[in-house]
Specification:
Elements (H helix, E strand, L loop, with lengths): L13 E4 H11 L1 H6 L3 E5 L5 E4 L1 H20 L8 E10 L7 E9 L6 H4 L17 H11 L3 E5 L7 E8 L2
Helix pairs in contact: 1-3, 3-5
């Protein structure tokens, strides 16, 4: 679903209003948040617009939020989950048009063990039943190919996790 097209001319680059995209994704999961009693906290600041491949970014962010929901469902914080989503502009140079967007998605779910933290982006790696283990791997590849970054931090099992990503203009 995150097919990487090698031919630059075939990329479908469009305007992405980051705050609007994140709000739309949150609305898509509203029923899950309500059923699981998950509180969502946002910190978006100024409206950030980038020009990139909207569908791939939206799918990747949706996968990360879905993973956060699932991490809460199997944790000791079930029915008391919190997902925090923050977005901010990152000026790369003094040029007004040379910037990226940084997005942090944190949860108080099951977290990631020290043994798995370095495996989490490998193709096919998963700790979940009936999952392919490809979504994060494919999104990371998309971001790398598009000069972006994706990092996961977790203090360990039952301590939640934070996924941070950075993506700029194509």
């Amino acid at each position: 679903s995150f097919s990487i097209i090698k031919d630059q001319n075939k990329k479908q680059v469009s305007e992405i209003k980051i705050n609007q995209m994140l709000q739309s994704i949150i609305m898509d999961f509203e029923q899950h948040f309500s059923q699981q009693k998950i509180k969502v906290e946002t910190n978006f600041g100024e409206d950030i617009v980038i020009y990139n491949q909207k569908q791939q970014i939206q799918q990747g962010l949706s996968s990360i939020i879905k993973n956060a929901i699932e991490a809460i469902e199997v944790s000791s914080n079930v029915n008391n989950g919190i997902i925090k989503i923050a977005a901010r502009k990152n000026d790369i140079t003094d040029n007004h048009f040379d910037y990226s967007v940084c997005i942090d998605i944190s949860d108080n779910g099951i977290g990631v063990s020290n043994n798995n933290i370095n495996k989490i982006f490998r193709a096919g790696f998963t700790t979940k039943k009936m999952k392919s283990g490809l979504n994060l791997h494919n999104f990371l590849n998309f971001l790398k190919y598009n000069k972006g970054k994706l990092v996961i931090n977790s203090e360990g099992v039952n301590k939640g996790s934070t996924i941070s990503l950075e993506i700029g203009n194509e």
